[in-house]
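Checked the freezer inventory, then went back to the computational side. Two predictions to log before the end of the day. The first one is the construct we discussed on Monday; recording sequence and C-alpha cells without edits.
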Amino acid sequence: MSADPAGLAFDGVRFAYPGDASGREVLAGVSFRVSPAERVAVLGPNGAGKTTLMLHLNGTLTPTAGTVSIAGAVVSRQNVREIRRRVGLVFQDPDDQLFMPTVGEDVAFGPANCGIRGGELESRVAIALAQVGLHGAEHRYPQRLSLGERRRAAIATILAMDVEVVVLDEPTSNLDPSARRALSATLSDLDSTVLVVTHDLPFALEVCQRSVVLNGGRIVADGPTAELLGDAALMAAHGLELPWGFDPAVAVRQRAQR
C-alpha cells in the first residue's frame, strides 16, 4: 500500500473473539482498501461484523490473522498510540465521548492530552466546532444539546485531534431530518478519509460514492453505492432493504439537479 497519510487497508483480516466456544470467526478474510479522502460506507445486516471491523482501525481489537494498515503502517500494539492520533472513532452514542462539563472542554480533551496548549489548543477547538456547525458552542453544556448537536460535537472531538481518518458507527441513528441533513453536510465538507458504518442506506448514498457490503464476516460486494443499492438480488441476498418508495437512481438524479 502507498504511504499516503490518509490511506487505509484491510488485508486478509480474520478475527474471532477470545473465549467464544464456537470458535466462529466474526471477520473471515476481509480485504479492501480506501484511498485518501475517499468516503466509503460499510453496509450489512446485524451480526455481519461491521462494528468489529471498525474497532480494528484504531487498535481496540487485533486481528488473529492478516493486517490493518493506516498510511502503510500496520496497526499493532507497538504503534497504537500514534495510530489513535491519526484515526478517530465516533461511536453511535455521543454520550460515550462527551463527558466534560462543557462542549469546549470535551473538544479540547484529546489535543490537551497530546500536549497542545494555549492559543493552538483554543484554535483547534474553535476550528473543529466551526467544521461541524457549532461555532461559539464552547461554553454550552453537552447535556443541553440536541441529539444531532451532540453527535456533531462528538465528531468535533475527533477533528480537534487533526485525524486523517474518521470512522462513524451508525451516525444517523435517532436523528430527525434536520439533524440528519446537517450531519450529511458536515461529512461532505471533510477533507479526511471517512468510513461510515450504517444501516441507513439513503444516507450512505448521499454521503458515500462507494460502499462495501459485509456479511458473514466477508466482503460480498464492493462498488459504487448507487449500483449496489439498485441491485435487488444483491440486496435481498444480504438482508438489506431500502425504505418503501426509495429509488436510488431517482435520488442520484435529484441530487445532480440541485
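The second is the one RB wanted added to the comparison set:
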Amino acid sequence: MLDKSTLSTDDILALDQAHVWHPYAAFPNPAPVYPVSHAEGVHLHLTDGRQLIDGTASWWSVLHGYNHPVLNKAVENQLAKVAHVMLGGLTHEPVARLAKQLVDITPEGLNKVFFSDSGSVAVEIALKMALQYWFAQGQHQRTQFLALRSGYHGDTFAAMSVCDPISGMHSMFNQFLKHHIFTEAPACKFDEEWDERHLINFSHLIQQHRQKIAAVVLEPIAQNAGGMRFYSPHYLRRVRELCTQFDVLLIADEIATGFGRTGELFACDHARISPDIMCLGKALTGGYITLAATLCNDKVSDMISQKGAGAFMHGPTFMGNPLACAVGVASVNLLLKSHWQLQVASIQTQLTQELEACRGLPAVADVRVLGAIGVVELKQVPHMASIQARFVEEGVWVRPFGKLVYLMPSYIIKPDELRHLTRSIYNVISELEA
C-alpha cells in the first residue's frame, strides 16, 4: 500500500511498469513511457522537468489546448451540481443543451442524438441502429455492411468487423469477426479531377448486394488510423446518391474528422451531403472527458421506434454524463465563437509549406496535408521506441503509427510552435535509412 502523498518520477515509472497495460503494447511495456505532471496550451510538462510541444492533441481530441480556463470552469460548475445521473427515465440541462447544439451544427436532417462513452461504442450503436432499422421492417437478411478498405472504425468487435480485414490492425481477429463486404479504398485524391471510374467497384458491390446490405459505413473525406488518406468529395457525393438509389443507409464515422479538423466543420460538409447516421467523439469535449454521440435522422428513429421492438435496444450506464456534456457544451461554444476556420486554414498552409521539405528525404514515400492534418508517409516502418525517443529529444510529442508520421495539433497552436514540430519531423526522418 502506498502512503506517499506525491510520487517521484521513478515511483510512477515503477508502478506503471508493474501494473499499467498501455494501448497497442506488450506487457510489460518494452518501450519507454514519459510521465506527465501537467499541461498548458500545447505544452506537455514531464515530471523530470522537460517540456514537449504536443503535435497530436492527445489522439486528435484537445482542440483548444490543455488546461483551458473556459473548459475548466464548465467542469467545476457542473461538479458542484451533479457529476453523474443515469439517463434512463431522467434527464438534465447539459445533455439537452449538447444534443440541441449537435443537431444545429451537423448536416441537415440529423436530429436525434444517442450519447455513449467512446468512439468505438458510437460506431457499435450506429451499426446496431442500421440493423434494427431493417429488422423492424422484417428484412432480417440485411445484416451486412459495405465498408471501405483502409478504413478504421474502432477496437470493439462490431467496429473491428468494418475495419480493413487484411491490412488493418485487427486482421488477427478476422476469423472471429462477422465478415462484411469491402470495396477498394478511394483512389481519387482530394483535389483530383473526378472520374467516375473511381466508383466502379463500389457501384458494382452496392448493386449486387443491395438486398443484404444494412448500410454503407465510411470515414468521410479522410481515412485516418487506417492510413491517413484523403479522397475526393465527389466520391462521397456519389456514394450518398447510390445509397439513396438502392435504398441503403449511409453511416458517416466523423469521430476523427468532426469539429473542423479537415477544414469544414464536418467532413461531410465538403460534399454537402447528409448521412442517415453520424458518429462523433474524440474532440466532442475538447479532450477533457470521454464522450461520444451517434446521430440519426427521422427515417431511422421513426422506423426503430414505431415497429419491431418499439425501442432502440442500447443503454450505456454513463451515457449523457452531466460532467462530460457540460464540458462538451462549453467546447462546442468555444469552437463556434473562435476563428477556427482561419486557424485551420493557417495550419494547413504552414504544414503544406514546411512538410514539403520531407518529400526529398530518402526514407519518405509521400507527404500529404488536409486541414489541420499533416502526414509524412515513410517507405519502411521505423523502430517505434527509437523514433519516439528522438522526437522527445527534439522537444516534441509526435507518435507515429506504422509508416505514418503525422501532426494533428490543437487549433490554438502558434506558428513558431508548429514550426518546431515540422522541423523536428524533418530532423528525425532525415536520420532514417530508405
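For RB: Residues 187 and 198 are 6 Å apart (CA to CA). The radius of gyration is 22 Å. Let me know if you want it refolded.
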